[in-house]
Amino acid sequence: MPVTLYAATTNPGKLRDFAAAAAEGGFALDPLPGLEKIAPPPEDAPTFAGNARLKAQYYSRLAPGFVLADDSGLEVDSLGGEPGVRSARFADDAGFEPPDASPSLSIDERNNLYLLDRMLSAAHRKARYRCALVVAANGVVLLQTEGLVNGEILTSPRGSGGFGYDPLFWLPQLQRTMAEISVEQKHSISHRGRAFRALLPGLKTLAAA
């Protein structure tokens, strides 16, 4: 039978990435109905996989069908794997306020500035994006996958596409940042695309049940 996945995220960038990957595999993906009215669970696991499982189990108890939850972010070798599971709150967790910065800066912009500040003296700039995906129903985890994409952190942003740390995330094989590549290229190489494609065999089994 047809399988519709309900994504437990309000992030428009993530929804766009997941919907495109789902469509490629012949599945539908919709935002979780009423998500904005549901109190979120604490994301206190130390790993992306742990947080994705926590969210999938929590939201799948409150919604019908199959719920897809993710946790994803950036890991920088010279920072010991930071920002890791705190990627979305990196600057705010540290109370970082860029000097002489406009008060209208977005959280993505503040995170990028804080990352650059932390890496001023870094000799090695290798990093990776990591995405953990979990599908659950009625509080039971059914599928779990992970995707990675390796790169480096630039010393200044490039490109206006993407979101998060994309303007700083350099892809050596393409000689562009994640914010400079096309939507199609991003789907083919991104950590979210790779994690979702790894779900497809399991999703097809669910659809056939």
Explain this structure to me?
By secondary structure, this protein is an alpha/beta fold. It has a single domain (4-208), classed as Maf protein (Alpha-Beta Complex), CATH 3.90.950. The protein is 33% helix and 24% strand. The chain has six helices and seven strands; from the N terminus they run βαβαβααββββαα. Strands 2-1-3-4-5-6-7 form a seven-stranded mixed beta sheet. β1, α1 (12-24) and β2 (28-31) form a beta-alpha-beta unit. The longest helix is centred in the last third of the chain and has 18 residues, at 191-208. The N and C termini lie close together (7 Å).
Q: Which fold name is given in CATH as the topology?
A: Maf protein
Biggest sheet architecture: 7 strands, mixed
Give the radius of gyration.
Answer: 17 Å
Average pLDDT over all residues: 92
Approximately how much beta-strand content do the residues carry? 15-25%
Q: Trace the largest sheet across and list its strands.
A: 2-1-3-4-5-6-7
Shape: globular
Spans of at least 5 consecutive residues with low confidence? none
Structure annotation, total helices: 6
Structural domain count: 1
